[in-house]
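2024-03-11 09:14:02 INFO receiving multi-entity request
2024-03-11 09:14:02 INFO entity count = two
2024-03-11 09:14:03 INFO echoing inputs for audit
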Amino acid sequence: MENQQDFQYTRQISQQYPQDKRFLLAILQDIQKEYNYLPRESLYMVQEYMDIPLAKLYSMATFYKALSLKPKGRYIIKVCDGTACHIRASQTLTDEISKILKIAPGQTTSDGRFSLETVNCLGSCAAAPVIVVNDRFYGKVTPSMVKTIIDEYGGIYS
Amino acid sequence: MQIIIDKVKCEAKLGETLLTIARRNNIHIPTLCHSDALAGQGNCRMCMVEVSEGKTKKMVASCIYPVTKSIEVITNSETLTKMRKTLVMLLSARVPHNNTILKLRQEYNLPPVTRFKSDDEEECILCGLCTRACDEMGISAISTVNRGINKKVSTPFEEPSTVCIGCGACAHVCPTGAIKIEDIGEERIIWEKSFELLRCSNCGKPFITRVGFEYIKNKINTEIETVCENCRKDAITKKLRDIYGF
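2024-03-11 09:21:47 INFO inference complete, emitting structure
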């Protein structure tokens, strides 16, 4: 968890953009990238900088899937559940990851290392079922490969 | 400019919406997400009408359709009723126990919707009129949060708002009465926040929140008396009567 000092970087992120509403999403995305979530303090700072109601910011922050108000894990595992992946049993992959990490889709492990998400299509249907961990791509994944993939990122501490 | 609504000739100004013109001419168009105090939203689609321009026909939401040329409008037809029936059916699937929607459903002779699992407590149809009213008040204490089936109207972080003035505009415009506003003695509770109510200096009825009163005073930058709407109307009526000697 970052301390109060660290959130001050939000100001620098905001100031890279003009004080115009249309840059709001870009600012929020940058904050999300920096802290892996949108800290409350950051939202207050952006509100002050942009001079817009907090309700509007909160509305945006809860609308976009790419933004999160809860801290996300260092490694975000995205399991594709688009039509092609779904047919090729992507659900079994989600179940397997859930079993190993002991979290449901949308949750983060208590050590803050892994987050599990299901997404609707990653655009690589030929390689179904697909998993993406942060920016790394895995195609034609089988449940037996899941453990190896998680181990690549340090696995679970037992 | 002249347009024809349901065979009635109506005077119209350029840019006026069809709904405004119809209302002025006492032609009924059903609406949910509309308040005369606010601009049209085009969310609920209940106000759909048929517009004919020469040979082409199209369906438009009358609350946001501006008149630009002479057109012919039909506010009621088989197709329109069918569309409205579908809308009411979908709405009653969302809020099966809401009185406004229940009445509409009976009006359109529709059976109860049993196909979907619904939340019995839900009263909100997410028309967005309340957030619009709050924005117009210059407060923006509430907004829609989340998306899809989890969408709802709420204050930031779902905590009592720091900016809400308890004016109750949101509850006042809500077509389904979904926003809870409680006045108990000199206290008003709305959006889980409590406000002190000021009493009318004339009749003694609590009528406005203290913060709301201060907000209005600052906004118009003049001293105003703490007089409720009814007493103010009475005072004006009396004044007029005195002037014209009725």
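2024-03-11 09:21:48 INFO post-check: The two ends of chain B are 39 Å apart (CA to CA).
2024-03-11 09:21:48 INFO post-check: Chain B touches chain A through 17 residues (CB under 8 Å).
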